[in-house]
Amino acid sequence: MERPIEYWRDLYLLHSESKTYKKRLSESIDFVNRFLDLGVKSYVGWSCGKDSTVLAHLVNYLYPNYPIVSEKDDLDFPDEIEYLQSVSNKFGFNSCVISPDVKLWDILVNHDFNEDIHSKGTSFSDDYFYGLLRKHQSEHEYKGVFLGLRASESKGRLINAKVNRYIYYNQEWRQIVCQPLMNWSAQDVFAYLFANDVPILSVYFKTAFHDSPEQIRKSWILPSHQASLGQAQWIKHYYPEIFLRLSMIDPKIRAYV
Amino acid sequence: MYKITFTLKSGFCAAYPPLFDSILSWAYCVAYANRDTDLRGELVWMSDDDSRVFDFSTVLTIVYRDGLPCASEMFWDKDAAVLDVIRKRKKWDNKNDDIADFGKKKAQAQINKGEFKSYDIPYQVTVVDKVWFYFESNDLEGVRDLLRYVVGLGKHASEGYGEIESYEIEPESELSFESGRILRPIPVAWMGEQPYRRQLRAWKPPYWNPANNVLCYVP
Fold it and tell me: 3-class DSSP state for residue A34?
Protein backbone atom coordinates (compact mmCIF):
# COMPACT_ATOMS: atom_id res chain seq x y z
CA MET A 1 0.00 0.00 0.00
CA GLU A 2 1.21 3.50 -0.75
CA ARG A 3 1.90 5.64 2.28
CA PRO A 4 3.28 9.16 2.60
CA ILE A 5 7.04 9.46 2.98
CA GLU A 6 6.54 10.90 6.50
CA TYR A 7 5.14 7.56 7.60
CA TRP A 8 8.29 5.76 6.49
CA ARG A 9 10.54 8.45 7.92
CA ASP A 10 8.99 8.05 11.39
CA LEU A 11 9.19 4.28 11.17
CA TYR A 12 12.83 4.09 10.09
CA LEU A 13 13.98 6.86 12.42
CA LEU A 14 12.68 4.70 15.24
CA HIS A 15 14.77 1.83 13.91
CA SER A 16 17.83 4.08 13.79
CA GLU A 17 17.62 4.27 17.59
CA SER A 18 17.97 0.51 17.96
CA LYS A 19 21.10 -1.19 19.29
CA THR A 20 21.24 -3.61 16.34
CA TYR A 21 21.42 -0.75 13.86
CA LYS A 22 24.07 1.08 15.82
CA LYS A 23 26.16 -2.06 16.14
CA ARG A 24 26.00 -2.78 12.41
CA LEU A 25 26.90 0.80 11.57
CA SER A 26 29.85 0.69 13.88
CA GLU A 27 31.02 -2.62 12.35
CA SER A 28 30.74 -1.15 8.86
CA ILE A 29 32.79 1.89 9.79
CA ASP A 30 35.40 -0.48 11.12
CA PHE A 31 35.50 -2.43 7.83
CA VAL A 32 35.77 0.76 5.78
CA ASN A 33 38.73 1.86 7.90
CA ARG A 34 40.38 -1.54 7.70
CA PHE A 35 40.04 -1.58 3.92
CA LEU A 36 41.47 1.90 3.55
CA ASP A 37 44.39 0.92 5.79
CA LEU A 38 45.41 -1.45 2.98
CA GLY A 39 46.30 1.61 0.93
CA VAL A 40 44.79 0.29 -2.28
CA LYS A 41 43.62 2.78 -4.89
CA SER A 42 39.85 2.26 -4.83
CA TYR A 43 36.48 3.80 -5.55
CA VAL A 44 32.90 3.45 -4.38
CA GLY A 45 30.44 1.94 -6.86
CA TRP A 46 27.27 4.04 -6.68
CA SER A 47 24.16 3.03 -8.62
CA CYS A 48 21.88 5.57 -6.86
CA GLY A 49 20.05 2.63 -5.29
CA LYS A 50 19.48 2.74 -1.55
CA ASP A 51 22.38 0.48 -0.51
CA SER A 52 25.09 2.07 -2.58
CA THR A 53 23.84 5.52 -1.58
CA VAL A 54 24.38 4.60 2.06
CA LEU A 55 27.87 3.38 1.23
CA ALA A 56 28.77 6.43 -0.84
CA HIS A 57 27.57 8.72 1.93
CA LEU A 58 29.33 6.75 4.65
CA VAL A 59 32.70 6.59 2.85
CA ASN A 60 32.47 10.24 1.82
CA TYR A 61 31.64 11.19 5.41
CA LEU A 62 34.65 9.30 6.76
CA TYR A 63 36.99 10.25 3.90
CA PRO A 64 35.71 13.38 2.13
CA ASN A 65 36.37 13.58 -1.59
CA TYR A 66 36.80 9.82 -1.96
CA PRO A 67 36.24 8.72 -5.62
CA ILE A 68 32.70 7.59 -6.36
CA VAL A 69 31.85 6.06 -9.74
CA SER A 70 28.37 5.71 -11.28
CA GLU A 71 27.31 4.15 -14.54
CA LYS A 72 24.31 5.97 -16.02
CA ASP A 73 22.51 5.45 -19.30
CA ASP A 74 19.18 5.94 -21.04
CA LEU A 75 17.65 2.84 -19.41
CA ASP A 76 17.82 4.34 -15.94
CA PHE A 77 14.78 5.71 -14.16
CA PRO A 78 13.69 9.12 -15.44
CA ASP A 79 14.74 11.10 -12.35
CA GLU A 80 17.99 9.27 -11.68
CA ILE A 81 20.52 11.70 -13.15
CA GLU A 82 18.81 14.58 -11.38
CA TYR A 83 18.93 12.60 -8.15
CA LEU A 84 22.61 11.79 -8.61
CA GLN A 85 23.47 15.43 -9.15
CA SER A 86 21.42 16.66 -6.20
CA VAL A 87 22.95 14.15 -3.77
CA SER A 88 26.45 14.80 -5.12
CA ASN A 89 26.01 18.54 -4.68
CA LYS A 90 24.45 18.24 -1.23
CA PHE A 91 27.27 16.14 0.22
CA GLY A 92 30.11 17.25 -2.03
CA PHE A 93 30.74 13.83 -3.57
CA ASN A 94 33.75 13.42 -5.81
CA SER A 95 31.60 11.54 -8.31
CA CYS A 96 32.38 10.45 -11.81
CA VAL A 97 29.64 9.32 -14.20
CA ILE A 98 30.44 6.90 -17.00
CA SER A 99 28.01 6.13 -19.82
CA PRO A 100 27.98 3.88 -22.87
CA ASP A 101 28.52 5.62 -26.18
CA VAL A 102 25.36 4.06 -27.64
CA LYS A 103 21.68 4.39 -26.78
CA LEU A 104 20.64 1.23 -24.95
CA TRP A 105 17.02 1.60 -26.06
CA ASP A 106 18.22 1.04 -29.64
CA ILE A 107 20.10 -2.10 -28.66
CA LEU A 108 17.31 -3.47 -26.49
CA VAL A 109 15.39 -4.76 -29.53
CA ASN A 110 17.92 -7.57 -29.84
CA HIS A 111 17.50 -8.76 -26.23
CA ASP A 112 14.76 -10.45 -24.27
CA PHE A 113 14.18 -7.94 -21.47
CA ASN A 114 11.59 -10.22 -19.86
CA GLU A 115 14.36 -12.61 -18.88
CA ASP A 116 17.48 -11.99 -16.84
CA ILE A 117 19.33 -9.15 -18.50
CA HIS A 118 21.28 -7.56 -15.66
CA SER A 119 23.22 -10.33 -13.96
CA LYS A 120 26.89 -10.88 -14.60
CA GLY A 121 27.27 -13.27 -17.49
CA THR A 122 24.35 -11.95 -19.53
CA SER A 123 25.62 -10.34 -22.70
CA PHE A 124 23.63 -7.12 -22.38
CA SER A 125 24.94 -6.23 -18.94
CA ASP A 126 28.45 -7.53 -19.70
CA ASP A 127 28.65 -5.27 -22.74
CA TYR A 128 26.97 -2.12 -21.46
CA PHE A 129 27.43 -2.15 -17.69
CA TYR A 130 30.18 -4.36 -16.33
CA GLY A 131 32.29 -3.81 -19.45
CA LEU A 132 32.25 -0.06 -18.89
CA LEU A 133 33.21 -0.46 -15.25
CA ARG A 134 36.08 -2.77 -16.13
CA LYS A 135 37.36 -0.30 -18.69
CA HIS A 136 37.10 2.60 -16.25
CA GLN A 137 38.81 0.57 -13.55
CA SER A 138 41.64 -0.34 -15.85
CA GLU A 139 42.08 3.22 -17.19
CA HIS A 140 42.29 4.67 -13.67
CA GLU A 141 44.29 1.78 -12.27
CA TYR A 142 41.83 1.10 -9.48
CA LYS A 143 42.78 -2.02 -7.53
CA GLY A 144 39.89 -2.02 -5.12
CA VAL A 145 36.21 -1.23 -4.90
CA PHE A 146 33.56 -0.59 -2.26
CA LEU A 147 30.28 -2.34 -3.08
CA GLY A 148 26.99 -1.93 -1.24
CA LEU A 149 25.95 -5.57 -1.44
CA ARG A 150 23.91 -7.11 1.36
CA ALA A 151 23.62 -10.82 2.22
CA SER A 152 19.88 -10.61 2.77
CA GLU A 153 19.27 -9.49 -0.82
CA SER A 154 19.60 -12.91 -2.41
CA LYS A 155 20.81 -16.45 -1.91
CA GLY A 156 23.85 -15.75 -4.09
CA ARG A 157 24.88 -12.78 -1.97
CA LEU A 158 24.36 -14.76 1.22
CA ILE A 159 26.75 -17.43 -0.09
CA ASN A 160 29.16 -14.68 -1.16
CA ALA A 161 29.03 -13.27 2.38
CA LYS A 162 29.62 -16.65 3.99
CA VAL A 163 32.48 -17.57 1.66
CA ASN A 164 34.23 -14.23 1.18
CA ARG A 165 33.22 -12.22 4.24
CA TYR A 166 33.63 -8.43 4.13
CA ILE A 167 36.94 -7.93 2.33
CA TYR A 168 38.26 -10.31 -0.31
CA TYR A 169 40.22 -10.52 -3.54
CA ASN A 170 38.09 -11.06 -6.64
CA GLN A 171 40.23 -13.01 -9.07
CA GLU A 172 37.99 -12.46 -12.06
CA TRP A 173 37.99 -8.69 -11.69
CA ARG A 174 41.50 -8.60 -10.24
CA GLN A 175 40.51 -6.25 -7.49
CA ILE A 176 39.99 -6.21 -3.75
CA VAL A 177 36.35 -5.90 -2.86
CA CYS A 178 35.07 -4.38 0.35
CA GLN A 179 31.38 -4.91 1.14
CA PRO A 180 30.86 -3.25 4.52
CA LEU A 181 27.06 -3.45 4.43
CA MET A 182 26.96 -7.25 4.02
CA ASN A 183 25.34 -7.71 7.40
CA TRP A 184 22.76 -4.93 7.04
CA SER A 185 19.03 -5.37 6.67
CA ALA A 186 16.96 -3.18 4.35
CA GLN A 187 15.54 -1.54 7.47
CA ASP A 188 19.05 -0.51 8.51
CA VAL A 189 19.61 1.02 5.09
CA PHE A 190 16.51 3.21 5.23
CA ALA A 191 17.23 4.06 8.86
CA TYR A 192 20.67 5.35 7.85
CA LEU A 193 19.31 7.39 4.96
CA PHE A 194 16.59 9.06 7.00
CA ALA A 195 18.80 9.56 10.05
CA ASN A 196 21.43 11.33 7.95
CA ASP A 197 18.92 13.26 5.85
CA VAL A 198 20.13 11.62 2.64
CA PRO A 199 17.59 11.99 -0.22
CA ILE A 200 16.11 8.69 -1.42
CA LEU A 201 15.26 7.92 -5.04
CA SER A 202 11.49 8.23 -5.60
CA VAL A 203 11.11 4.65 -6.91
CA TYR A 204 11.38 3.32 -3.37
CA PHE A 205 8.13 4.97 -2.36
CA LYS A 206 6.14 3.56 -5.27
CA THR A 207 4.69 0.82 -3.13
CA ALA A 208 1.21 0.18 -4.52
CA PHE A 209 2.07 -3.52 -4.88
CA HIS A 210 4.53 -3.84 -2.00
CA ASP A 211 4.27 -3.88 1.76
CA SER A 212 7.20 -1.52 2.25
CA PRO A 213 10.03 0.27 0.38
CA GLU A 214 12.33 -2.54 1.53
CA GLN A 215 10.87 -4.85 -1.11
CA ILE A 216 11.66 -2.60 -4.05
CA ARG A 217 14.81 -3.33 -6.04
CA LYS A 218 16.30 -0.77 -8.38
CA SER A 219 18.15 -1.69 -11.51
CA TRP A 220 17.53 -0.69 -15.11
CA ILE A 221 13.95 0.21 -15.79
CA LEU A 222 13.35 -3.17 -17.36
CA PRO A 223 11.24 -5.99 -15.95
CA SER A 224 14.04 -8.54 -16.47
CA HIS A 225 13.39 -11.98 -14.95
CA GLN A 226 11.14 -10.30 -12.38
CA ALA A 227 8.59 -9.59 -15.14
CA SER A 228 6.47 -12.54 -14.09
CA LEU A 229 6.83 -11.61 -10.43
CA GLY A 230 5.14 -8.24 -10.61
CA GLN A 231 7.84 -6.01 -12.08
CA ALA A 232 6.01 -5.63 -15.40
CA GLN A 233 2.84 -4.71 -13.53
CA TRP A 234 4.77 -2.22 -11.42
CA ILE A 235 6.27 -0.54 -14.49
CA LYS A 236 2.86 -0.34 -16.14
CA HIS A 237 1.37 1.26 -13.03
CA TYR A 238 4.04 3.86 -12.39
CA TYR A 239 5.70 4.36 -15.78
CA PRO A 240 2.98 3.81 -18.42
CA GLU A 241 4.97 5.54 -21.15
CA ILE A 242 7.92 3.24 -20.59
CA PHE A 243 5.66 0.20 -20.42
CA LEU A 244 4.13 1.20 -23.74
CA ARG A 245 7.56 1.62 -25.28
CA LEU A 246 8.62 -1.79 -24.02
CA SER A 247 5.42 -3.42 -25.25
CA MET A 248 6.03 -2.00 -28.73
CA ILE A 249 9.45 -3.66 -28.73
CA ASP A 250 8.25 -6.98 -27.30
CA PRO A 251 4.50 -7.50 -26.72
CA LYS A 252 5.30 -10.47 -24.47
CA ILE A 253 5.55 -8.08 -21.54
CA ARG A 254 1.78 -7.67 -21.74
CA ALA A 255 1.38 -11.30 -20.68
CA TYR A 256 2.59 -10.29 -17.23
CA VAL A 257 0.07 -7.55 -16.46
CA MET B 1 -27.58 10.96 -22.73
CA TYR B 2 -27.94 8.13 -20.25
CA LYS B 3 -26.24 7.15 -17.06
CA ILE B 4 -25.87 3.45 -16.30
CA THR B 5 -25.09 2.51 -12.70
CA PHE B 6 -23.85 -0.97 -11.86
CA THR B 7 -24.15 -2.38 -8.36
CA LEU B 8 -21.21 -4.68 -7.77
CA LYS B 9 -20.99 -7.78 -5.63
CA SER B 10 -17.20 -7.77 -5.49
CA GLY B 11 -14.25 -5.42 -6.03
CA PHE B 12 -13.05 -4.84 -9.58
CA CYS B 13 -9.57 -5.16 -10.95
CA ALA B 14 -8.42 -2.70 -13.64
CA ALA B 15 -5.24 -0.87 -14.50
CA TYR B 16 -7.28 1.86 -16.18
CA PRO B 17 -11.03 2.50 -15.91
CA PRO B 18 -12.78 0.42 -18.60
CA LEU B 19 -14.73 2.23 -21.33
CA PHE B 20 -18.39 1.44 -21.82
CA ASP B 21 -18.10 0.86 -25.57
CA SER B 22 -15.31 -1.67 -24.98
CA ILE B 23 -17.61 -3.60 -22.65
CA LEU B 24 -20.37 -3.60 -25.26
CA SER B 25 -17.88 -4.61 -27.96
CA TRP B 26 -16.78 -7.53 -25.83
CA ALA B 27 -20.43 -8.48 -25.24
CA TYR B 28 -21.04 -8.32 -28.97
CA CYS B 29 -18.21 -10.76 -29.61
CA VAL B 30 -19.51 -13.14 -26.97
CA ALA B 31 -23.03 -12.87 -28.32
CA TYR B 32 -22.41 -13.21 -32.04
CA ALA B 33 -18.83 -13.80 -33.06
CA ASN B 34 -18.57 -17.31 -31.70
CA ARG B 35 -21.69 -18.41 -33.52
CA ASP B 36 -21.57 -16.57 -36.80
CA THR B 37 -18.79 -18.03 -38.89
CA ASP B 38 -19.09 -15.31 -41.52
CA LEU B 39 -18.56 -12.70 -38.86
CA ARG B 40 -15.61 -14.58 -37.41
CA GLY B 41 -13.82 -14.11 -40.70
CA GLU B 42 -14.33 -10.35 -40.48
CA LEU B 43 -13.06 -9.98 -36.95
CA VAL B 44 -9.58 -8.59 -37.49
CA TRP B 45 -8.39 -6.99 -34.27
CA MET B 46 -5.07 -5.56 -35.24
CA SER B 47 -3.68 -4.62 -38.61
CA ASP B 48 -1.43 -1.99 -40.12
CA ASP B 49 -4.34 -1.34 -42.44
CA ASP B 50 -7.03 0.39 -40.35
CA SER B 51 -9.72 -0.45 -42.88
CA ARG B 52 -9.28 -4.15 -42.14
CA VAL B 53 -9.86 -3.77 -38.38
CA PHE B 54 -13.40 -4.67 -37.45
CA ASP B 55 -15.50 -1.53 -37.05
CA PHE B 56 -17.74 -1.87 -34.02
CA SER B 57 -19.48 1.41 -34.81
CA THR B 58 -21.50 -0.51 -37.38
CA VAL B 59 -22.93 -2.92 -34.84
CA LEU B 60 -23.07 -1.19 -31.46
CA THR B 61 -26.19 0.77 -30.65
CA ILE B 62 -24.39 3.78 -29.21
CA VAL B 63 -23.90 7.11 -30.92
CA TYR B 64 -20.56 7.87 -32.60
CA ARG B 65 -19.34 11.42 -33.11
CA ASP B 66 -16.21 12.29 -35.10
CA GLY B 67 -15.39 8.58 -35.08
CA LEU B 68 -15.43 8.42 -31.29
CA PRO B 69 -18.04 6.43 -29.40
CA CYS B 70 -20.13 8.59 -27.04
CA ALA B 71 -19.44 6.23 -24.17
CA SER B 72 -17.58 7.28 -21.04
CA GLU B 73 -15.00 5.51 -18.99
CA MET B 74 -16.00 4.05 -15.65
CA PHE B 75 -16.54 6.35 -12.68
CA TRP B 76 -16.82 5.58 -8.99
CA ASP B 77 -16.66 7.35 -5.68
CA LYS B 78 -12.92 7.41 -5.03
CA ASP B 79 -13.32 8.54 -1.42
CA ALA B 80 -15.52 5.56 -0.62
CA ALA B 81 -13.34 3.03 -2.44
CA VAL B 82 -11.04 0.66 -0.57
CA LEU B 83 -7.88 -0.46 -2.38
CA ASP B 84 -6.44 -3.91 -1.99
CA VAL B 85 -3.82 -5.98 -3.79
CA ILE B 86 -4.42 -9.55 -4.89
CA ARG B 87 -1.82 -11.85 -6.42
CA LYS B 88 -2.27 -14.35 -9.21
CA ARG B 89 0.19 -17.19 -8.87
CA LYS B 90 1.24 -20.21 -10.86
CA LYS B 91 4.00 -22.45 -9.64
CA TRP B 92 5.19 -25.98 -10.07
CA ASP B 93 3.05 -28.49 -8.21
CA ASN B 94 4.73 -31.68 -6.97
CA LYS B 95 1.86 -33.70 -8.36
CA ASN B 96 3.31 -32.95 -11.81
CA ASP B 97 6.71 -34.43 -11.01
CA ASP B 98 6.13 -37.20 -13.56
CA ILE B 99 6.47 -34.54 -16.28
CA ALA B 100 10.03 -33.99 -15.09
CA ASP B 101 10.87 -37.70 -14.92
CA PHE B 102 13.12 -38.25 -17.92
CA GLY B 103 14.48 -41.59 -16.82
CA LYS B 104 18.20 -41.80 -17.55
CA LYS B 105 18.07 -38.97 -20.04
CA LYS B 106 19.60 -35.73 -18.88
CA ALA B 107 16.87 -33.12 -19.19
CA GLN B 108 14.94 -30.72 -17.07
CA ALA B 109 11.61 -28.95 -16.92
CA GLN B 110 12.37 -25.26 -16.57
CA ILE B 111 10.16 -23.23 -14.30
CA ASN B 112 11.82 -19.91 -15.00
CA LYS B 113 10.87 -19.83 -18.67
CA GLY B 114 8.66 -21.55 -21.22
CA GLU B 115 5.37 -23.36 -20.63
CA PHE B 116 6.06 -24.17 -16.97
CA LYS B 117 7.20 -20.67 -16.08
CA SER B 118 6.02 -19.65 -12.63
CA TYR B 119 4.41 -16.30 -12.06
CA ASP B 120 3.25 -14.21 -9.16
CA ILE B 121 1.61 -11.07 -10.45
CA PRO B 122 0.00 -8.42 -8.23
CA TYR B 123 -3.23 -6.70 -9.23
CA GLN B 124 -4.82 -3.73 -7.55
CA VAL B 125 -8.45 -4.34 -6.61
CA THR B 126 -10.87 -1.49 -5.95
CA VAL B 127 -13.69 -2.41 -3.63
CA VAL B 128 -16.70 -0.15 -4.11
CA ASP B 129 -20.49 -0.63 -4.18
CA LYS B 130 -21.42 1.23 -7.29
CA VAL B 131 -19.76 2.28 -10.53
CA TRP B 132 -21.28 4.20 -13.41
CA PHE B 133 -20.83 5.17 -17.07
CA TYR B 134 -22.40 7.76 -19.38
CA PHE B 135 -23.39 7.01 -22.93
CA GLU B 136 -25.55 8.19 -25.81
CA SER B 137 -27.75 5.75 -27.63
CA ASN B 138 -30.74 5.77 -29.93
CA ASP B 139 -31.59 2.17 -29.12
CA LEU B 140 -31.59 1.39 -25.41
CA GLU B 141 -32.96 -2.07 -26.00
CA GLY B 142 -29.92 -2.89 -28.12
CA VAL B 143 -27.69 -1.88 -25.21
CA ARG B 144 -29.74 -3.90 -22.72
CA ASP B 145 -29.59 -6.87 -25.07
CA LEU B 146 -25.78 -6.83 -25.11
CA LEU B 147 -25.56 -6.29 -21.35
CA ARG B 148 -27.16 -9.73 -20.87
CA TYR B 149 -23.74 -11.18 -21.64
CA VAL B 150 -21.79 -9.00 -19.22
CA VAL B 151 -21.36 -10.63 -15.82
CA GLY B 152 -18.44 -8.60 -14.50
CA LEU B 153 -16.40 -5.46 -15.07
CA GLY B 154 -12.62 -5.15 -15.34
CA LYS B 155 -9.95 -7.82 -15.45
CA HIS B 156 -10.47 -11.34 -14.16
CA ALA B 157 -14.25 -11.03 -14.22
CA SER B 158 -14.43 -14.77 -14.89
CA GLU B 159 -12.85 -15.30 -11.48
CA GLY B 160 -15.44 -13.21 -9.70
CA TYR B 161 -13.82 -9.79 -9.66
CA GLY B 162 -16.15 -6.90 -10.50
CA GLU B 163 -19.18 -9.18 -10.43
CA ILE B 164 -22.36 -7.34 -11.35
CA GLU B 165 -25.37 -7.67 -9.08
CA SER B 166 -27.69 -5.37 -11.02
CA TYR B 167 -27.72 -2.27 -13.17
CA GLU B 168 -29.99 0.68 -13.70
CA ILE B 169 -30.21 3.05 -16.66
CA GLU B 170 -31.54 6.58 -16.21
CA PRO B 171 -31.58 9.67 -18.42
CA GLU B 172 -28.83 12.17 -17.69
CA SER B 173 -29.68 15.76 -18.46
CA GLU B 174 -26.89 17.73 -16.78
CA LEU B 175 -23.93 16.20 -18.59
CA SER B 176 -23.24 15.65 -22.25
CA PHE B 177 -20.26 14.69 -24.36
CA GLU B 178 -20.22 18.23 -25.70
CA SER B 179 -20.55 19.99 -22.34
CA GLY B 180 -16.79 20.46 -22.00
CA ARG B 181 -16.34 17.93 -19.24
CA ILE B 182 -13.97 15.11 -20.18
CA LEU B 183 -15.81 11.81 -19.90
CA ARG B 184 -13.41 9.59 -21.82
CA PRO B 185 -9.81 9.83 -23.12
CA ILE B 186 -9.60 12.45 -25.86
CA PRO B 187 -6.31 13.10 -27.70
CA VAL B 188 -4.59 16.28 -26.59
CA ALA B 189 -3.94 17.07 -30.24
CA TRP B 190 -7.68 17.40 -30.85
CA MET B 191 -8.31 19.98 -28.15
CA GLY B 192 -5.11 21.99 -27.84
CA GLU B 193 -4.00 23.31 -24.44
CA GLN B 194 -6.65 22.66 -21.82
CA PRO B 195 -6.48 22.58 -18.03
CA TYR B 196 -7.36 18.88 -17.79
CA ARG B 197 -5.44 15.90 -16.45
CA ARG B 198 -3.24 14.22 -19.08
CA GLN B 199 -2.36 10.57 -19.41
CA LEU B 200 -0.99 8.27 -22.07
CA ARG B 201 -4.07 6.23 -23.00
CA ALA B 202 -5.71 4.37 -25.87
CA TRP B 203 -8.32 6.72 -27.31
CA LYS B 204 -10.00 4.42 -29.83
CA PRO B 205 -10.69 0.70 -30.03
CA PRO B 206 -9.07 -1.72 -29.77
CA TYR B 207 -7.95 -0.19 -26.50
CA TRP B 208 -5.36 -2.88 -25.83
CA ASN B 209 -3.45 -2.04 -29.01
CA PRO B 210 -0.31 -0.06 -28.02
CA ALA B 211 -0.46 1.74 -31.37
CA ASN B 212 -3.65 3.50 -30.24
CA ASN B 213 -2.00 5.03 -27.18
CA VAL B 214 -1.47 8.77 -27.40
CA LEU B 215 -1.33 11.58 -24.86
CA CYS B 216 -4.96 12.20 -23.89
CA TYR B 217 -7.03 14.39 -21.63
CA VAL B 218 -8.69 12.04 -19.18
CA PRO B 219 -11.52 12.49 -16.64
Answer: helix
What are the C-alpha distances in Å from B17 to residues A207, B71, B202? 20, 12, 11
Burial classification of residue B145, based on how many CB atoms lie within 10 Å of its CB (0-12 exposed, 13-18 middle, 19 or more buried): middle
In this complex, do A251 and B199 lie within 8 Å of one another by their Cβ atoms?
Answer: no
CA A145 – CA A66 distance, rounded (Å): 11
Residues A140-190: pLDDT tens digits? Answer: 999 999 999 999 988 989 999 999 999 999 998 899 999 999 999 999 999
Reported as a pLDDT band with limits 50, 70 and 90, residue B41 is: low
Q: Cβ distance A51 to A188 under 8 Å?
A: no
d(CA B135, CA B183): 9
Cα separations in angstroms, B44 against A175, A244, B64, B146: 58, 22, 20, 20
ipTM confidence score: 0.78
- Sign of the alpha-carbon dihedral angle for B148, B149, B150, B152: positive
Provide residues of A within 8 Å CB-CB of chain B. Answer: 1, 115, 208-209, 225, 228-230, 232-234, 236-237, 240-241, 244, 247-248, 251, 254, 256-257
Instruction: Give me the residues paired with residue B200 across strands.
Output: B215
Is A228 within 8 Å of B199 when comparing Cβ atoms?
A: no
| Type of residue numbered A10 | D
Interface of B with A in 50-89 (CB under 8 A): 83, 85, 87
Looking at residue B148, the DSSP 8-state letter turns out to be T
Angle between helices A50-62 and A80-91 (to 10 degrees): 20
Distance, CA of A35 to CA of A180 (rounded, Å): 9
Q: Cα–Cα distance between A230 and B70 in angstroms, integer?
A: 35
Task: State the Cα–Cα distance between residues A28 and A22, nearest whole angstrom.
Answer: 10
Q: What is the pTM of this model?
A: 0.85
pLDDT bracket for residue B43 (50, 70, 90): low
User: What confidence tens digit (pLDDT) does each residue in A192-213 have?
Assistant: 999 999 999 999 999 999 999 9
As a whole number of angstroms, the distance between CA B14 and CA A55 comes to 40
Give the amino acid at A249.
I
- Phi–psi pair at A162, nearest 5 degrees: -70, -40
- Residues of B with CB below 8 A from A230's CB? 87, 120-122
Please check whether residue B129 is in contact with residue B1, taking contact to mean a CB–CB distance below 8 angstroms: no
- The tens digit of pLDDT for each residue in B65-90 reads 888 889 999 999 999 999 999 998 88
- What is the distance between the alpha carbons of residues A129 and A118, in angstroms, rounded to a whole number? 8
